[in-house]
Amino acid sequence: MGTERKLRDCAWWPGKAALCVAALGAGSADQAAAETAYSIFDTPDRPSLNFYGAPGLVDMPTAEAMPDGQFAIGVSHFGGMTRTTLSFQATPRLSASFRYVGIQDWNANGFETYRDRSFDLRYLLKKEDGFWPAVTVGLQDFAGTGIYAGEYVVATKTFDNSPLPGTLKVTGGLGWGRLGSSNSIGTPFGSDRGSFTAGDTGGELSFDQWFRGPVAPFAGVEWQVNDRWALKAEYSSDAYVAEDSGRDVFTRKSQVNLGTEYQYSQGLRLGAYYLYGSEVGVNFQYQFHPRNPATPLTVTPTLPLNVRPSRAAAPQAWDTGWAASTQSQISYRDDLKSVLSESGLALVALQLSPASGELRLRNDRYQAPAVAVGRAARAMAQVLPASVETFRIVLMEENLAQSAVTVRRSDLEALEFDPMAADALLAVSGIGEAAPRLPGAMTNADLYPDFAWAIGPYVSPSYFDPTEPVRLDFGVEVAASYRPAPGWTIAGSLQHRLGGNVGDDPRTSNSRLPKVRTNGSLYANQGETALNTAYVSKRWKAGNDLYARVSLGYFERMFGGVSAELLWKPVTSNLALGVEANYVKQRDFDGGLGFQDYSVATGHVSAYYEFGGGYHGQLDVGRYLAGDLGATVTITREFENGWRVGGFATLTDVSSEEFGEGSFDKGINLTVPINWFLGEPDKRSVSATIRPIQRDGGARLMAPGRLYESVRSGHRNALEDQWSRVWE
Length: 728
Description:
Shape: globular
Helix content: 10-25%
Structural class: mainly beta
CATH superfamily of the domain at 35-288: monomeric porin ompg
Distance between the termini: 25 Å
Oligomer: single chain
Strand order of the largest sheet: 19-20-21-22-23-24-25-26-27-28-29-30-31
Number of strands: 31
CATH architecture of the domain at 35-288: Beta Barrel
Number of helices: 12
Largest sheet: 13 strands, antiparallel
């Protein structure tokens, strides 16, 4: 058994996550370079981006929205200011952005280059139609220190039949905050508005300041001359008061900005600009969609369905005498095991009767569970006797029976070439509860014991340090796992650091809370060779709709102890409820076996809900590692191919002053399936969490093998969402 099959996901080997996420940019860039026949008019709803990485002109926003689900990366520079922005069109109308900024000569808090993080939200109030323009309302830097804070209402109208060739877009809007600082026309909603103060911890939502203070108009035009070139001109309502007169970052001489942009490929757009009468700027824009893989997915075709002869033509094929022969049943099991293995599926157990068969299988290859179900059904039709009419296929994940898909063999035979084969098969199939165990079934003795190991490079990044935007450690990691019996896992990883600068951070933690996360640089500095994880875990199905886990050991670089979890998740329900309890101690900085004096009982009650359309919600209420009490809300969007992007926020009984910079814990979760890069079936994925700042408040234990994702990945919604692939 090779290690490729046994390394089932990136959580197994967390050191590789940064490498895989970095590959996203490289893979997308390669794709962009290869797209030579692109015309921008093929995607007229894709807007260009401004210097804030959002749909816009030069420095001002427009009312346009990106295509639903689109990602955009924008990097812009002018006047000593560099802005890097990640934007996501979360719904057809709502988009969100995370921005990281470096400002030279700002001279705040003793930093030569001041670095700041901020979030934006935009909502499309009205889509453009034949007569009316698109209208959007936006919040800029609404959860940061506020140096770029502003609000706006903007309208954009597209003219395809203007006297000019190409397309003309005209924009006009009103701005508050930063966007209302030049040539104000009044204060319609009140004049009370705060301002940025050096040393502000930021992160708080200043509801009482939104759309307050002076309001100013802005306007501009974008002329898409042809399928490559565009010209832009705008009148800006941002006076850059702090940068110009306050801190001499640059000198503003005009409110007019001009620019030209070149669409290099379908994703990549480059721009050069003359801003505020004194500065030259550049803008790099890249847009991509999760549904468009870096490498197109290629699935090896399966064999055609083996159709049974009629009972009248071949009555001997329908004889049921085989069911009384143990040797015959074992032979069918072995044949089925071999056929499944060729498709990347593993037979866990098989139970046969003259008219039905239940197959329990482990899917080691396909991200879509429906593909595994379809291939398993065709394998059963190929191997099992003609009398076996009903197939019951149970998906297994680490000894957890997820769901049972019941398919009639005659339906498979009748629908294989139906124009609506997938929908028709779903209509006559059943998806229901799977029993925790299958007594008396024939099992696969080759599965256990199971040992796997791997050695390779790792990269451990640290982001948003005020003195260094990105710090990086790299080295060699050895990872191993041993599964002695179903549900049992003994696993661990050892890392040896070859170089890097994560531990070079000169700052010491100023946290008022127990230092459960802010001493990260000490762990990096003192543990050149470190035991990253080492634990034993047991997972099992405790009853119908109930799943359980118990783990013991070193769960992560900073904590070890004992963890227990119970999850209630019916197969056909959108709702799941769980409870987790942990008692952990803080590990020594050197990465050895020792512990420090700090220990804590931590745990959460969790509710999970699938809203439909790929949207998921999660609420965790409980006690965190620093002993604070509170709740975390997470909203995630999942695409059919396994891409997931979500945002989370945690509020606890710790005040913003006690929490420190950022005021409360928040961030972005990103999961990318490996097959998006490879172009071939692969069940693994890589995950990353982007936090503006890592503090001690709201910090949760990184317990391995949490149940919810393992359970729901084979339940009704996951199967039906990708059922169109059941015939692959």
